[in-house]
Amino acid sequence: MTNWNATDLPDLTGRTAIVTGANSGLGIATTEALARAGARVVLAVRDPERGRAAARAVQGSTEVRRLDLADLASVREFAESWTGELDLLINNAGVMAIPESQTKDGFETQFGTNHLGHFALTNLLLPHVTGRVVTVSSGAHRRTKGIRFDNPNLTGEYSPWSAYAQSKLANLLFTLELQRRLAASGSPVRALAAHPGWAATNLQGRSGSAVLNKLMAIGNRFIAQDNHAGALPTLYAATQDLPGASYVGPDGPGEMRGGPALVGRTAAASDPAAAKRLWTLSEELTGVTFPAKVKTPK
Length: 298
Description:
The protein is about 35% helix and about 15% strand. It is of the alpha/beta class. The protein has one domain: Rossmann fold, CATH 3.40.50. It has an 8-stranded mixed sheet with strand order 3-2-1-4-5-6-7-8, sandwiched between helices. Strand 2 (about 40-45), helix 2 (about 50-55) and strand 3 form a beta-alpha-beta unit. The chain starts with 15 loop residues before the first strand and ends in a 12-residue tail after the last helix.
């Protein structure tokens, strides 16, 4: 196993990063590590009060801004308020295996939050991005054979885990097509993906099933690695010299825990035709498109 950890981060003084869902779990661990390395970190959170409470415990430069990925109006407001360059965009926030519900725009919540919200945010911010976009996916992408293009909201056939798996597959296809578009435009910006393995965070325990919540709590205690270890693949993807569209996860058995390393993905997550099709669908659903101008080499 690799022994790379957060102390191996390069000096990030003068760099600015946005971390979505930064007030807890993987998000706060990512924020803490980036701030300790010298970065100015913007905590993009749904609840600013909780964000400010989390930021007070971080050693380094932080700022808290409101962002609700389940509300495209909030996404647009956040992006429109951004000025200046952005070195790192960490698409970390997400929900997992929750009871069926919809976002404010009427999308299935997991697909709408985990994928569509980040799709819109990334494209709206992309003219400012100078470094990398890292999107947090999951090994659960292996639990689905493909995007349900005929029924992305899984209307009438909703399953919490199927919906989660689809949203995490969407994260990987989004990264693949985003990298293709960045390269075609001549931009040096790179898009990468990461997954934490099994990390003990507050994502677990919201399934609506007392039995499943208990089982996940037991897994968190005896199997999972902590949120700081779970954040390492994201930090590695954000700072190491890796090719665009790389996917980083733990290098231990089953990719459940271990040091960060390049890992594999399913054929469905590597399909460029599906990635383009998802991009087109996402543009139609969000009304957001790839920007006419992105950062190019000076």
